[in-house]
Amino acid sequence: xxxxxxxxxxxxxxxxxxxxxxxxxxxxxxxxxxxxxxxxxxxxxxxxxxxxxxxxxxxxxxxxxxxxxxxxxxxxxxxxxxxxxxxxxxxxxxxxxxxxxxxxxxxxxx
Length: 110
Prior knowledge:
By secondary structure, this protein is mainly β. It is 5% helix and 45% strand.
């Protein structure tokens, strides 16, 4: 299958944004995505990688893989005023932990 990918801002002129602390995640950390209906999917961080802006591996981030993954991506590095973007991209690769995933009103899935 293909991974789910969530991109979020690092910051804005107003301050820290949704993925400001993404760089603090390390391999083994868990994160959860909870849907409005109560479904909760738990993922474990596998790795965190930093790439120059134009060299992020699109196939690795968005391409097919055997695992159920959620990849998170944000800006990183120094602000490039001329390009109006950051010099790098930070990607956190995670895999689903089925035994911790809960469907609303049911037991954990396996």
